[in-house]
Specification:
alpha/beta
């Protein structure tokens, strides 16, 4: 944390729900935060100006993800 840079790669599900507030606070305190998330996800809807979001492509659609679950 002394470097001021943080790369976050959360898992789908509750991990991100727990981490999101911490990530936002670190960003507000001046840390350079990048969050890497899949293009298709249930809970990782990323629309923020607090930190940078980078998405990566996945093979399945949201419908396929729903069926698999």
């Amino acid at each position: 944390s002394d470097g001021g840079k943080l790369l976050v790669v959360p898992m789908v599900g509750s991990h991100w729900l727990s981490m999101q507030e911490v990530v936002e606070k670190l960003s507000e305190r001046g840390h350079d935060v990048v969050v890497v998330v899949p293009e298709v996800s249930w809970q990782m809807k990323m629309t923020t100006e607090t930190y940078k979001v980078v998405t990566y492509p996945v093979r399945q659609s949201l419908e396929e993800l729903d069926r698999a679950f």
